[in-house]
Amino acid sequence: MSELQSNLDRLAGHLKQFEGKVLPHRINGEDVISKKTMESRSPVDDSVICDVAEGSAADIDAAAKAAHAAFPAWRDMSGKQRKKVLHAVADAIVARADEIALVESWDTGQAIRFMSKAALRGAANFRYFADRAEAARDGQTLPTPDHMNITTRAPIGPVGVITPWNTPFMLSTWKIAPALAAGCTVVHKPAEWSPLTARLLIEIAEGAGLPKGVWNMVNGMGEEAGKALTEHPRIKAVAFVGESSTGSAIMRQGSETLKRVHFELGGKNPVVVFDDANFDRALDAAIFMIYSLNGERCTSSSRVLIQAGIYDRFVAALEARVQKLKVGHPLDPATEIGPLIHPRHLAKVTSYLDVAKDDGARIAVRGEAGESAGYFINPTLYADATQDMRIAQEEIFGPVLTAMKFGDENEALEIANSVAYGLAGYVWTNDVTRALRFSEGLDAGMIWVNSENVRHLPTPFGGTKASGIGRDGGDWSFDFYMETKNIAIALGEHKITKLGV
Ligand code: NAD
Q1: Which one is catalytic: 54, 231, 264, 395?
Q2: How far does Cα 55 stand from its chain's mean position?
Q3: Given ligand 1 and candidates 165, 174, 246, 263, which is best to mutate, with the most ligand atoms within 8 Å of its CB?
Q4: Distance of CA 1 to the CA centre of its chain
């Protein structure tokens, strides 16, 4: 039996839990179904997987109240106990990693070769923050001659987590694990286009011993359920991953209740290849960072800036490789690019073919949509682009790379920084001084030199400009999910200014 067939057979078993049912919300440890429902379809063949409860403001209210009621006990539980529960969640994710990967592939169109890693990374996120739960509240003392200042940190309260459709399982764990480790309770609103693995995740967490109400999940549309979550007075902070324009809307919606917000938003990340770079490694990394995960990745290297001396050779090498990328069924282990998430997104990505033509770029590899019912598309390579073109400025969020030529370092920096976004940057050079100088000038939250995106969880993750507000990872996640307090205790009878004497 082929590996594809074996994957399909196992998937069929896992899909039985969803078929013919309405995927419910999970509020205070109970399944809840709304009056309205929406369909979840597979990008692979446009088939309906199941109906999904479409959450209303009333569902969000119930979830927020459950999170509020569960908060004191979870907050006051020792870090050691929380650590134990969160490690149990990680163990249970590992035990169901195959199921998570298969279901996520089917629900999002992402190739299985990447999804099996994403499921395990979800477990790693839980383990990482579990190990830090005990120290999350630690503060410091800052003495003066007159006062002993003691800083403490406490969880902020119930928080809202709103996630996008790209790698939804991994991203949900990345936001929810630190919130729980900090002692916050959670209401999660998963993306409407990929709701399945959020259900598996909360089921796993409750099965691993998470008390009811600590984590609640409400499905639904952003404009209704998402909006209600960001406006709810019981919700103290909103961690959001998604589009920059949605971040703006959330900021407006949360302003009335003075929500603390944390945004991981879009990107138009440059990979800058200097003449002296290791040509083959830079080529491998540039291709990997834009064509893996269907290019539906916030840190994708969607612009490649190539120095004039190697431009023609590098673009020719890109063309040859891009034509050979394997588009196919996401459950086939050989597949490198699966179908895009949704017909609307497919239409957006392909619309740039006309935009590029009108702007005068060269379409070196033309990625058209396929004939099948699924939302397949071949990869695209635009060459000879200039920084003013829309393909060089806008986040396309598909398997689409825009190549541009630069002369010297200053020009490269100007092009790299000319976009609204500032999430990630990739620099390829063997000159260490230039690498440091260029990285210093690059307006981005994360820069990799002579490397693709390799994450080390204690390091800060996040972007500048329209790419976000705040950082995740290490202690940065706890800074967002916790309130810092200073207690100043007088050490003696220092002079107090007397008034009214
Ligand atoms: P999106 O902004 O359309 O939706 C994200 C989530 O927000 C969904 O759950 C949606 O229902 C919800 N939402 C929509 N409108 C809302 C509103 N008014 N109030 C509250 N919630 C609302 O984003 P998407 O299309 O699902 O995801 C793709 C985007 O996410 C891309 O721009 C990508 O770059 C970005 N992204 C960023 C990172 C990062 O770490 N910086 C990571 C992954 C994805």
Answers
A1: 264
A2: 22
A3: 246
A4: 35
Question: What is the average per-residue pLDDT within 337-364?
Answer: 97
Specify the pLDDT at position 168.
98
Nearest to 133 by CA among 179, 211, 79, 88: 79
In the reported structure, the alpha carbon of residue 344 is separated from the centroid of ligand 1 by a whole-number distance in angstroms of: 15
Please work out, in degrees rounded to the nearest 5, the angle formed at the alpha carbon of residue 175 by the alpha carbons of 418 and 422. Answer: 5
- Give me the architecture of the 270-449 domain, per CATH: 3-Layer(aba) Sandwich (3.40)
Mean pLDDT over all residues of the chain?
A: 97
**Cβ-proximal residues to 116 (8 Å cutoff; 6+ apart), any chain:** 97, 98, 101
> Whose Cα sits closest to atom 20 in ligand 1?
226
Q: Report whether CATH 3.40.605.10 matches the domain 3-265+467-485.
A: yes
Asked whether this chain's domains 3-265+467-485 and 270-449 adopt the same fold, the reply is: no
* 298 is an active site residue: yes
Cα 352 to Cα 332: distance, rounded to the nearest angstrom: 28
CB contact burial 357-390 (16+ within 10 A = b; e otherwise): eebebebbbebebeeeebbbbbbbbbbbbebebe
Taking the domains of the chain in order of start, what are their residue ranges? Answer: 3-265+467-485, 270-449
Q: What is d(CA 25, CA 63) in angstroms, rounded to the nearest whole number? A: 9
Beta-sheet pairing, 237-241 with 215-217: unpaired
Instruction: Identify whether 264 is a catalytic site residue.
Output: yes
Distance 265 CA to ligand 1 centre (A): 7
Rounded to two decimals, what is the model's pTM? 0.97
pLDDT score recorded for residue 1 = 84
Segment 412-447, tens digit of pLDDT = 999 999 999 999 999 999 999 999 999 999 999 999
Q: How many beta carbons lie within 10 A of that of residue 26, not counting itself? A: 25
Output the ligand 1 site: residues, CB below 6 A.
162-166, 171, 189, 191-192, 221-223, 226-227, 230, 241-243, 246, 249-250, 253, 264-267, 298, 395, 397, 423, 463, 467-468
